[in-house]
Amino acid sequence: MTNLQIEKIITFICFIFFTISSFAIKVENNQIIDDYGNKIEAKEYKKIIVTDPGVIEILFKIGGEKSIIAIAKTSRSKIYPSDKVDKLVSIGNISNLNLEKVVEYKPDLIVVSSMMLRNVEAIKKMGYKVIVSNASNLNGILDTISVTGIISGKKDEAEKLRKECLVKLEKIEKENKKSSSKLKGAILFSTSPMTAFSEDSIPGDVLKHLGVINIAANVPGQRPILSPEYILKENPDFLAGAMSLDDPQQIIEASNVIPKIKAGKNNNIFILDSSVILRSSYRIFDEMEVLKEKLNKIENK
User: Fold this and answer.
1) How many CA atoms does the CB half-sphere of 161 hold within 13 Å?
2) pTM of the predicted protein model
């Protein structure tokens, strides 16, 4: 089994976990508290190891990258800005840290995503402060931006970024209120079987804020399976692929009902950039504007 295949399996398991957990990270009584009960003092940290790609991107955006002493890189996708991130020292992958290297770098804080929960207890036993940073919706990403500003000493810059993201989100919501019709669609996780992102996920929340009727919302399960019969009945206007899907043809060839639905007939089947649509980064708000334009074209056909 290749490293790429292993990463896909680990990511799949973690995304299932994300939808089960009502993920949040908050600041309370001068403490930053994650959804797993980990607590750290709400202050600036000078030497941070970061394994969450979204937090890395936020740190660079707000000018807090100097606090990063090491990261965990991904094998499937780049972390933005890639030309600068590629120069950082990597001491692990998305699911596992090299604990010997952690000792070598002597961090005063380690920020991990839920994909690295297996390391959290070991890190704490070694005496290092650790916080789990991930989000299951857009509000969670906004909170992550604020917390990232606190730990990097860039609180003002983070709050400015948060407001910019909120303005983009509010603009999209305002435009949605003017629309008299709603598109139906889904963001697919895989095609064998055909599974989609539920409402309790970042992609699901994106669809909700874009005013799209997510056909996966009516199907039970944390990772809803969309049967051919159900897809034909719902007749979605579009189908978008993410995660392990990187070619629209994968969706088209997944079932003989695809050419019979509106999405197939009108060629409204496309792939989204998983490094944006699935990542707890500020960049998702820019991607929503791009996706909104694409949906407007579908609606106006």
Assistant:
1) 29
2) 0.89
